Amino acid sequence: MIFGSDWWEVGVGPVLPENERTRHRRLRAQGSRERSDLDAILAAGFVCHVGVVVDGTPLVVPTVYGCDGETLYFHGSVASRSLVAGGQDEVCVTVTHVDGLVLARSLFEHGVNYRSAMIFGVPRPVTEPEEKLEGLRVLSEHSVPGQWDYARLPNKKELAATALLALSLEEASVKIRVGPPDDGDGPDAALGLWAGVLPLRTTWGELEPDPVLPEDVEAPDHLARRQNTPL
Amino acid sequence: MIFGSDWWEVGVGPVLPENERTRHRRLRAQGSRERSDLDAILAAGFVCHVGVVVDGTPLVVPTVYGCDGETLYFHGSVASRSLVAGGQDEVCVTVTHVDGLVLARSLFEHGVNYRSAMIFGVPRPVTEPEEKLEGLRVLSEHSVPGQWDYARLPNKKELAATALLALSLEEASVKIRVGPPDDGDGPDAALGLWAGVLPLRTTWGELEPDPVLPEDVEAPDHLARRQNTPL
C-alpha cells in the first residue's frame, strides 16, 4: 500500500530510480514545499502525534495542538522529564488527515488518500506568563474558537500546573495524495474490475449537554453553529 | 487540556498524589488492562502512527495496519534501513480515535474524548512467502474487507517489493476518556456557563469511480454497502 511505503522513503533510504510509471505515481503522492499546504494541513485539524525518544526508545503520544502560523503549541506535562526540561530533545510532530481508501485493480496498488505534515525540532518551554497565556489562547482557539472569551480563563495555579511547549514550523515536511488509483492506464485495467476511491469524512455531531447542567442554560452560538459541520 | 497532559504521565514521570477530585478525573480518563478494549480500538480503525528512532531522533510515520487479534501487521519500505533490518530497533505504534471535544466551564478543564492504544516492541520482518501473503491478507482485509477475493493478488515481483512487519500485541497500553466535563460538581458550576461534549464522527462517503473506468463496470457489493456507514 502506497500510504505506508511512501513515508518510509522520506529521508531514510536511497532515492528509488524513476521511470514514467513511478514518476506518474509520485505526482499523485506529492511531497510539497508550499508553505500554504503546510498551513492548510495544520488548520484542518487539532490533534497531532508527538514522537519523543525516552531512554533510547520511541514514544508516540496523541495530543491537541494549536497553531498561529509561525509556531505550533502543545502541552507537555509538568511530570514529564523529557519534555519539560526542553532544550535538549528533538521531537517529531505529525499531523495526518485520512481522506479515503484508494481501491485499485490490484491489491499492490491499493492505498490511501491523505494529507500529512511532519514538523521537526526541539520544543521550547513557554514560561514567561504573558507569552504562556497567549500560547494557551492560540491552543484553545485553534480547536474551539470562541471558547477563550466564553469559559473561565486559567488562574495562576492552573497556569503553573500547565506546561506549554512551542515548536517552530521551520523544519517541516508535507506529503499529500489525492485522486484515483494509479493502475487505470496499466495492464490491470483489462481485468474489468471496479476501481476508485471510497472517501472518509469527519464531521462534528450534535452538542451533548453535561447531564448536571440546568435545563435553561443554552449553548452559546459559537458552539451551536459548529454542530453537523465538517471538521 | 487533559488529552495532552494525561499521556505524558504514562511511565515518564512521578505518580501525582491523588485526592477525590483527581481520582474522579482519573476514572473518566482511564487506563485499561482489558484485552477487549485493546482489540476494540484496533478493530475500529486502519491507520496508526509508527514511532521509530533514526540517528537518535524520533520519526512518526502514519501508515495502514491490520490486525488478526495476535499480531499487528504494517508496511516497512524495502528502502528503510531502520525498519527492514528489523530485530534491532523498538517501535511505538499508536492508534488513536478522537471522539469529541470536552467543553468545560473553565478552559483548564477542557479536553478530548478519545480511545487510544500504544503498542511497543521490536517488529519482526515477515519473509517466509506463505506467512507474508497471509499477513498481507490480514492487512488488506482489515481496512478493505472483501477486496482480497476481488482485486488481483500480488505476484512474485510485487511480493518481493513489499516489506511486511509483524508486531506482537504483548506490550500494549490503552487509554480511554468518555463522558462529560469533570467540573460539573465543582465551584465553576455556579458560573452558569454551558458545558458538555461536541462529538466527532467519521464516516465513509460515496464511492467515486476511477474516471477511466468504463461505465458498465459496477462496484462490487462489499464496497457498495460500505458507503455512508460509520468508520
TrEMBL record, chains A, B:
It holds the Pfam family Pyridox_ox_2. Residues 209-218 have a biased composition (Acidic residues). SUPFAM superfamilies: FMN-binding split barrel. InterPro entries: Pyridox_Oxase-rel, Split_barrel_FMN-bd. It comes from the Bacteria. Gene3D superfamilies: Electron Transport, Fmn-binding Protein, Chain A. Residues 209-231 are annotated as: Disordered. This is Pyridoxamine 5'-phosphate oxidase family protein. It comes from Actinomadura logoneensis.
